[in-house]
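Narrative of accomplishments. A recurring question from our advisory board has been how the design workflow behaves on a single, concrete structure rather than in aggregate. To address it, we present the structure tokens for one chain from the evaluation set, followed by the sequence designed for it. No filtering or post-editing was applied between the two.
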């Protein structure tokens, strides 16, 4: 226009050049058709063909949506057969569009999650669990690139997805979202494998590049590692052995032996959880204490299994009203969570919420008033001030401050 070259707009923008949540934006999300496995493409195609075949049987019924004349003309210009009837053309366009959306779901779908309250020993102390309730396409959220150490959190309220900064974001800095794999949960190799399978790219985020360039085993492997039973140093793993780096110690243990011991402890943790759920917290406590004693002998202090044992012990102690012991084990669990995810992480916020509930119910007033604001600040950052968990914390704090001895 006027002799000046115009930028090509992003596919999915409206006539004003704005990109927002709309069907046009959804339609133009990438499909990566050529990257899907042949089996997946076949299954999607077969599914759509079956749907169209069933719709064809009731083609004359009022339930079949029809295209406007303009839409039909546009579609026909893009390759519709001249001999096709309006009904068959409608089905063909519908089928190809549904197939397109099936491919888009694989790498663009956002899991809509909600916080479900699960019993934490009694009705007044709860454990919150994030669960998937649906899957949806949010074209604006799809613009966010992935990082294994993201700077945003996505939360849901009704049909609305809200993206909040989980840490300070400087002007000009990219807004990044975690697609699932996180440095606190998976190794570099595992993260890249999951992301390549689901989203068709090799992650080159700063966290992955740093691990790759330093040729380290990564923070997760250091946190979730085996330690020497004699000198407690972290063992160095080879293909088949775990070797103590202390030459004067000389401890060498087969990896298979350590992994079998770890699996046995995980099975015992599940058994202890069933004891708690069945109303036998005393049995759960005895079993978990044995697991803890055995685990600290060969697992690093920041190992997630040790954190899980402390968390389950806190749950069992809360069930019998031993709030002091419950709080002590929750504090140990929080140390493990902070090591993996950071002190401002959403995971840490959930653990601090449980600690707040335990301290509140145990009448530990000063300790509760110290923990509640920390939990509240983290959860507001990730969920906003209207969140139910935030409201609960504010009610607890107001109650405690209203007491003359608080």
């Amino acid at each position: 226009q006027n002799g000046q070259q115009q930028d090509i707009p992003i596919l999915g923008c409206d006539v004003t050049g704005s990109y927002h949540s709309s069907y046009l934006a959804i339609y133009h999300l990438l499909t990566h058709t050529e990257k899907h496995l042949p089996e997946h493409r076949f299954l999607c195609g077969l599914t759509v063909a079956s749907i169209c075949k069933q719709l064809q049987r009731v083609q004359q019924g009022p339930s079949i949506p029809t295209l406007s004349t303009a839409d039909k003309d546009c579609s026909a210009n893009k390759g519709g057969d001249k001999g096709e009837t309006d009904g068959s053309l409608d089905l063909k366009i519908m089928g190809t569009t549904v197939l397109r959306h099936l491919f888009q779901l694989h790498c663009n779908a956002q899991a809509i999650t909600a916080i479900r309250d699960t019993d934490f020993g009694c009705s007044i102390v709860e454990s919150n669990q994030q669960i998937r309730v649906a899957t949806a396409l949010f074209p604006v959220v799809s613009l966010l690139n992935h990082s294994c150490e993201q700077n945003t959190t996505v939360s849901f309220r009704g049909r609305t997805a809200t993206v909040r900064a989980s840490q300070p974001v400087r002007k000009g800095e990219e807004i990044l979202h975690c697609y699932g794999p996180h440095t606190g949960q998976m190794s570099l190799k595992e993260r890249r494998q999951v992301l390549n399978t689901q989203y068709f790219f090799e992650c080159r985020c700063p966290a992955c590049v740093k691990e790759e360039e330093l040729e380290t085993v990564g923070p997760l492997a250091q946190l979730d590692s085996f330690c020497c039973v004699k000198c407690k140093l972290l063992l160095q793993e080879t293909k088949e052995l775990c070797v103590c780096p202390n030459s004067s110690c000389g401890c060498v243990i087969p990896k298979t032996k350590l992994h079998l011991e770890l699996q046995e402890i995980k099975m015992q943790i599940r058994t202890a959880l069933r004891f708690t759920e069945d109303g036998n917290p005393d049995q759960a406590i005895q079993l978990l204490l044995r697991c803890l004693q055995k685990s600290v002998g060969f697992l690093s202090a920041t190992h997630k299994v040790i954190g899980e044992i402390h968390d389950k012990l806190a749950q069992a102690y809360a069930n019998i009203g031993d709030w002091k012991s419950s709080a002590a084990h929750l504090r140990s669990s929080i140390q493990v969570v902070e090591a993996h995810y950071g002190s401002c992480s959403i995971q840490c916020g959930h653990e601090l919420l449980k600690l707040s509930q335990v301290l509140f119910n145990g009448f530990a007033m000063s300790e509760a008033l110290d923990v509640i604001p920390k939990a509240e600040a983290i959860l507001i950052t990730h969920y906003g001030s209207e969140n139910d968990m935030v409201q609960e914390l504010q009610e607890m704090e107001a109650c405690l401050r209203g007491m003359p001895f608080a």
